[in-house]
């Protein structure tokens, strides 16, 4: 068993489904106590908590809209009340509201920017404040670790998804600039840029054989990614094994970025 996060506490946002759920389970399997944040789907979050408990892990579900300042504070308060400190924070919650650019409503633009970018700002800011307030803990070399889940669309343009690509480009520079600012405090900020991972957000791209065949043409490694692929990367970035990794976005994409757009 990987015990690289033994004794640590992690908050994972948007963890009632998809990549967040995969990261939460991988963290718990590596020994962390996990706060499974959800927005709307409490039942799914409780199921993830039950799955973790069935494997001998430790987790709680906490509802919070990551784009809402007061609710983000409540999320951290709940983590502290349950586990007494926070060592790892994964800003993962994200949405898509796709539209041709001239049809895109201001509401769809703002919803995506608020969840994907402002939400990551609020979560990362709360994490930095918490790490500074609690000081060094014995369970990790760093004062704290933040992982921002971005996308290969933080560098690959995406026609029809301008709001999403703009938000992820923003996440990349948020992550790098913050990493530079807080590295002297020994807070490590890194990112993960997933390619196509089998989750609800992109169901249309893999749920029929025709769609999947088209998708696989874009992936040199010849398979769609699974949430476990991202979970393993996140465990490594959260653990002391990556202690000298600062301000990097780990691309986990089966080689998608190797093809020019
Ligand atoms: P998903 O839809 O299963 O997960 C997104 C989660 O975020 C959901 O659980 C949702 O409830 C939650 N969420 C949405 N708004 C929220 C809010 N305001 N507050 C709290 N939680 C909120 O899809 P996923 O693929 O697991 O996406 C996770 C992250 O990975 C997203 O940031 C997404 O952009 C990114 N990503 C996914 C892929 C992919 O191929 N699946 C590729 C690149 C990046």
Describe the structure.
The radius of gyration is 17 Å and the shape is globular. β1, α1 and β2 form a beta-alpha-beta unit. It is of the alpha/beta class and 261 residues long. It has a seven-stranded parallel sheet, sandwiched between helices. It contains seven helices and seven strands; from the N terminus they run βαβαβαβαβαβααβ. The longest helix has 29 residues. Nicotinamide-adenine-dinucleotide (NAD) binds next to α1, β2 and α4. The site of nicotinamide-adenine-dinucleotide has 30 residues, from α1, β2 and α4.
List the SSEs and their pairings.
Layout: E1 9-12, H1 18-29, E2 33-38, H2 42-54, E3 58-63, H3 69-83, E4 88-91, H4 106-134, E5 144-149, H5 162-182, E6 187-194, H6 209-216, H7 227-238, E7 249-252
Parallel strand pairs: 1-2, 1-4, 2-3, 4-5, 5-6, 6-7
This protein binds nicotinamide-adenine-dinucleotide.
Overall mean pLDDT stands at 97
Distance between the termini: 40 Å
> Which quaternary structure do these chains form?
single chain
Tally of domains: 1
Classify the helix fraction into a percent range: 40-55%
Low-confidence stretches: none
Structural class: alpha/beta
- Alpha carbon gyration radius: 17 Å
CATH fold assignment: Rossmann fold
Would you identify the CATH H-level superfamily?
NAD(P)-binding Rossmann-like Domain
Heteromolecules bound: nicotinamide-adenine-dinucleotide
Largest sheet: 7 strands, parallel
Main sheet: strand order: 3-2-1-4-5-6-7
N to C succession of SSEs: EHEHEHEHEHEHHE
State the helix count. Answer: 7
């Amino acid at each position: 068993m990987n015990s690289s996060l033994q004794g640590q506490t992690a908050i994972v946002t948007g963890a009632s489904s998809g990549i967040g759920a995969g990261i939460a389970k991988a963290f718990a399997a590596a020994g962390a106590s996990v706060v499974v944040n959800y927005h709307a789907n409490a039942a799914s979050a409780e199921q993830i908590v039950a799955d973790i408990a069935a494997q001998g892990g430790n987790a709680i579900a906490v509802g919070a809209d990551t784009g809402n300042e007061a609710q983000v504070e409540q999320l951290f308060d709940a983590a502290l009340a349950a586990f007494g400190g926070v060592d790892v924070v994964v800003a993962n919650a994200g949405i898509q509201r796709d539209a041709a650019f001239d049809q895109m409503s201001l509401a769809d633009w703002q919803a995506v920017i608020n969840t994907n970018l402002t939400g990551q700002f609020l979560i990362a800011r709360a994490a930095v404040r918490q790490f500074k307030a609690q000081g060094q803990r014995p369970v990790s070399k760093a004062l704290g670790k933040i992982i921002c889940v971005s996308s290969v669309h933080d560098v690959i343009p995406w026609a029809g998804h301008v709001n999403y690509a703009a938000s992820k480009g923003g996440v990349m520079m948020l992550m790098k600039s913050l990493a530079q600012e807080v590295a002297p405090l020994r807070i490590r900020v890194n990112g993960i840029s997933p390619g196509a991972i089998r989750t609800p957000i992109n169901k249309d791209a893999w749920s029929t054989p025709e769609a999947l065949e088209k998708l696989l043409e874009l992936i040199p490694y010849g398979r769609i990614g699974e949430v476990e692929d991202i979970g393993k990367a996140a465990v490594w970035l959260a653990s002391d094994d990556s202690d000298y990794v600062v301000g990097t976005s780990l691309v986990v994409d089966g080689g998608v970025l190797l093809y020019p757009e």
